[in-house]
Each structure stands twice: as C-alpha cells, then as structure tokens.
Amino acid sequence: MNKVALFLLVISITLTCGKAGEDLTAEEILAMRDKNMVFDTAYSEIDMIITIGKRVVEKKLTSYTEGTEKSFIEFLSPARDRGTKMLKTGKVLKIYFPSAERVMRLSGHMLRQSMMGSDFSYEDLTETAEELRKEYNVKLLGEEVFAAAQCYVLELESKIENKTYFFIKIWVDKERYIGSKVEFYAKSGKLLKVLAVEDIKSFKNRYYPTKVTMEDKLRKNSKTEMIIKRIEFDILIPQGTFTERNLMRK
Amino acid sequence: MKMLFKLAFRNVFRYKRRTIITFSAISYGLGLMAIGISLYNGVDTHAMDNIINSQTAHLKILARGYFEEKDEVPLKFTIDEPQEIKSLLKDNQDIQGIESRILFQATIISGMDELPCLGVAIEPEVDPLVFKIKDSITDGRFLKPSEQKIILGSGLARDLSLKVGDECTLRIFFSIEDFIWNALDLEIAGIAKTENPMVNRGTVFIPLSLAQEALSLENRVTELAVRIEDKKRVLEVRESIESRLASLSKGYEVVSFEEYASDFRELMRLRSRIQAIIPLMMILIATLGIVNTMLMAVMERTREIGMLAAMGMRKMEVMLVFIFEGALIGIFGSIAACIIGGLGGWWLEAKGFSLAFLGEEISEMVSFLPMEVYKGDLTAGVLIFTLIFGTVISILASLYPAYKAVKLDPIQALRHVG
C-alpha cells in the first residue's frame, strides 16, 4: 500500500469518526436510539398502572420479544384480564380473551385504539424507530436539558398529509441514547400524548428504560405507567412461543 | 213541502235537550276531527321544513359520487372551486343564498366523556341566508368567521354538561376506517336548539376556514347548500343550476331536499300508509256519534211518528221531516265544528305543542320525527271538508231511523212505549 492511499484512508477514518463523535445528524441520532431499543430476544415482567381520575388499576404482565417483529404478552392480573394473551407478528396483532375463548385479530385502524384501557394504543407499543424514519422527516432542533440529562431535541414531521401524530418531538439522551421524552402532536398543533421515561437502567451492553409513563392528553387526568420489574436480554425463548396455539393454551 | 220544513224546524226547537245533545255531539266530534287532521298534516309539512332549515337547505350541489355515499360523510368527493360556482350562479334570481360547507365525522371530548357527532363547517356570514341555525341559538351567540369557537347542539351540550365559554376538544376524523384524526381545542360560543332534534342531539358547527385547515382541505368544500325563494320551484331551479354547471370540467350533481332527505321521506311514506288510519278513525268516531244520537232521537219519537201517520201524513213526507231535522242540526253543528276546529287549528299552527312536558329525555326518545314542537297545518280544505262531511253524515244518519219509523204500523207505533 502506497503512502497516498494510506493517507487517504487515515483521513477518511478520522473524518467519519469525528462525525460519529460530535455532529450526528438527526437520522443518526434516531438510529442510535433505535439500537438501544432493539435486541435479539428479551423476557420481561411488567406492571402497568392505569390512572384515570381517581381510579387506579394495576395490571401485571409478562412479555417475550424477538427482534422487532415478534412479541408475546400474557396478562397475569387482575382477575378480569388474567389469561388474556397477545401475539404480535409483523403488523398483525392477535388477542386471545379467555372469557370469550376466542382469538381476535387486530389490524389497521384497530391498532390505533387504546390497549386494555391504558393510555397506550396498540400501535404506540409496536411502532419501531425504523418505521418512524420511513414515515417522517426528521429534524434536529437543538439540545436541551431534560430530567438532569443533556438531550438532543428531534422534531419529526409526517411525510403524508393526514396522519394522527403529525408532529413528534423526541428528547434523546445524549449519553445513553434513550428517548427520554416523546411528545405526540396533531396536525393542528394540539398535544395528544406525552411519553416520559422516568427510570433508565444499565444492562450488559445497553441502557434500557424501565419506567415509562404515557399520558393521553385527550383524556382528563389520565396516565399509564409501565414499570419493568425484571428484564433479561438475549435469552432462549421456548419454541412455539410465537404461535397461535400458544395463545389458546390454558 | 214548506209545511214539512216548518214542522222540522219547529221540532228542532221543541225538543231542546235532544237538539243540544245531538248538536254538541256533532260539533265536538267534527271539531276534534278537524284539529286532528290539521295536526296530522302539520307533522308532514313542518317536519320537512325543519329538515330544510337545519340540514338540507332546498338544494345541495355535490361533487359526483358524494351523494351515493353521503351516509358515510366522505371527504374524498370535494368541490374544488366553490367560489367559481358561486359567481356562476350569482345572477340567478331564484336563489336566496349559497353557502359552502364541509360535513365531517367527529367526536367531542369533555373531560372523561367522548361522544360521536357530525361536524358541520359553515360560513358564518352566509349561513343565516340559507339555514336557520342563527335564529335557534338559545345561549351565547352565533359564530364569527374563522374564530376558534364552535356552536353545539343543545342535546350534546346537555349530555356533556357543557356551557357557553367552556373549552372542549374536537376529534376530527380524516378517515374513520383508518382511524386517522386531528384534534382541536375549541371554546363554545353558543348553543343551538333548532326545531330539529336530530340536529340538536348530534351536531357541532364550526367556522369553515378552521375546518378546512384542520382537514387539510384548503379552498375545498364538500357541499354547496342553496336556498331558493319559492320551495315549489325547486325542480326548475335545479335544472337551471345543472345547465350552468355543465360548463365546468368536474362533474357535479344537484340534489333536492326531497332526494337528500329520502330516508325521512321513506319513513313518512310508511307512516302515512299506516297512519292514514288515524284520520279515518277520527272520521269514524265522529260519524258513530252522530248516527247514535240521531237514532236515539228518532226512536224516542216512535209514538209521534204513529200519530203523524194516523193523521194521514204520507210515508215519504214523514221521512222528509226527519231528513230536514237531521240536515238542520247537521249544518249548525258543522258550522260550530268549523269554529272549534278553526280556533284549535289556528292555535296549533301558531304555537304548537311540545313534548317537553314529558321530560326532555323521554320526549327525545319519543320524537323520531325531526320536530321539537308539534305544529298544526290548518287549511281551508279541512274546514270545508268538515262542513260538508258533517251535513252529509247527519242526513245519512237520519235516513235509516226515519225509514225504520215509517215502516212501522201506525197502530203499533201509537202503542209503543218510549
């Protein structure tokens, strides 16, 4: 290898490194955040606390996830929801209600409705950053301190005219690349939902939010907290977990 | 003949009590019948007027394809050049006003409650020329162009316990199927209580420019509502509008209120088929009352008939006396009935009565008709019908008993104890 080529190589490496270190583009920041959220497999135990006015409902659930495409959720309590299971494969969500002993398939618009009475819609839970990048134009607004952490502020604007979440604003933690706060706006500029990360824990090779609160601003005094009690990454998921038969299993 | 008439005349005044009973039976029965028929007719005409004044106007100009799917309130069939169409029709003398509107599906949210409703985007400065929403504001005021406020139907306001000045959120759907929506925070400027409960129960009015922005329909509308001077000329005006619009490249259709409210027309048609029985029943009841009293009156006088026959009066003459009597009472009774019916009908037409005394909830449940107040429609025809009908029925009703009376043997009739 001659000197010129070596020089060019060194230059190009330093240039790219420098870029990765300091001036990330908005897309890159989003991609970094995504990397934290994506894993091969995970098993978690979650408490979901729904507060509507003075009423508080606590739901316990477990979840198996494989990549971004597959996940399986089972509700353990309260008694009313016990045994309710959800299976997500790609864009299709199937729910099994033990009381009805039937599997219901949710797709399209039904995914935009409230999940089990919470402030999350099914879609809020299943949408990936990859899809966000495809459907929105991302812009870096600047930096801000949120929850005692320096954050990038990203603004996403829908590429198509008619979309419920027309604008999305994401505060991405500069050190840990976690979206610590997300605001969803309607086209009119009305704030629709706010997602806030209240606790972040460090794992072997990543940071992961373990307490998340979602507020549906169209409902008065309403919020849903998701607390991850236990999470294990890169575990071996039992075979047949992501099958419809598993949904019906007693 | 003159003698017979005189005799009948005297008889009428001789039996005062009997005359009064028959007279009041006729006037009361027929009077109520006239009121009943005018109320029945009133429901037809006023219900349609209510629909015209609050929902359909006289004519609607729609983009081709809209009408077929109008129940879905689609946003994909839009009129892209409302101003051009308006100026095209400006010199049409029959037209009182043309308003650009957008109808859309929405839900209204207040605190924890969310109710579905129909959103109607209106041009506040033109709307009073076409509809009567402005006259029906019971609280607050009408909209001003492009302000961030809404008018709420009274039923919706009650269900969500919202008042003038309150804030609420309107969830505006681009598409119900895909559940894609926009949301607006709006203040309530006024509450409308139209005469059409369907509108009161589920309509929100917002300024057009606001809706165009929220639905990304800049300069586009879903319908042009047209009010004309004379409702009867609706078909001619429609033709002239259609020929004017033919020059435009995009296809439009012009729909009359009768077509637009065809569901309601269908309902009315079914109703009229079933309920034609109601005026018939009224007529039947009035007839039975008259026949009964006349029959009683003649039977009572069997001995008198025997006497007349014994003195040599011919059968035909005896019958004539009774027919004259029936006709006399019938004419005066019917005149009185016309007065009662006329007064009652006039009151119903001027004031009408509301079902509100049943309580608002029950009355709304009962009233499947687009009417808040039940008003009568009194026509000269009803009164003339009452007059002629009363007289004819009275004569016919006296025929049978008179015929029965003269068939009696005079001797037996004289012996009759009555």
How does this structure look, described?
The complex is a heterodimer of chains A (250) and B (418). Chain A has a single domain (25-248), classed as outer membrane lipoprotein receptor (LolB), chain A. In chain A, 19% of the residues lie in helices and 48% in strands. Chain A has helices at residues 3-21, 26-37, 122-126, 129-135, 244-248; strands at residues 41-52, 55-66, 70-77, 85-89, 92-97, 102-106, 136-146, 149-158, 167-173, 179-185, 191-203, 206-216, 222-233. A 13-stranded antiparallel beta sheet of chain A has the order 6-5-4-3-2-1-13-12-11-10-9-8-7. In chain A, a hairpin with a 2-residue loop joins strand 4 (85-89) and strand 5. The termini of chain A are far apart. Helix content of chain B is 54%, strand content 20%. A six-stranded mixed β-barrel of chain B has the order 2-3-8-5-7-6. A two-stranded antiparallel ribbon of chain B has the order 11-12. In chain B, helix 1 packs across helix 13 and helix 2 (16-56) packs antiparallel against helix 15 (380-407). In chain B, 42% of the residues are buried. Chain A binds chain B through residues 52-53, 108-110, 112-113, 161-164, 166, 186-188, 190, 192, 218-220, 222, and chain B through 109, 111-112, 114, 169, 171, 174-185, 213-214, 216.
